[in-house]
Amino acid sequence: MPGVYYIRELANHFKNNVVWLNPEIIRLEWVPWTRKIISSIIPMFHLTVEGIEEAMDFLRKGGKDTFTTVQMLKGFKY
Question: Looking at the predicted structure, is the pLDDT value of residue 11 above 60?
């Protein structure tokens, strides 16, 4: 099974209680295919102090009213 299958299983199991902390800085001008796929399934945040704070706010609110890379990358085709 490809890894994306397991990522989808995690997302389906945890619903709005899962985030992906990405160690690379997310730049819109250079978005690798893998990052697009993962962020379309699980909300992605930077692995920085600010990114972790944003991820925790997202989890505290149950995934509501928080802008994440999922919304940012929805228009991309892959």
Answer: yes
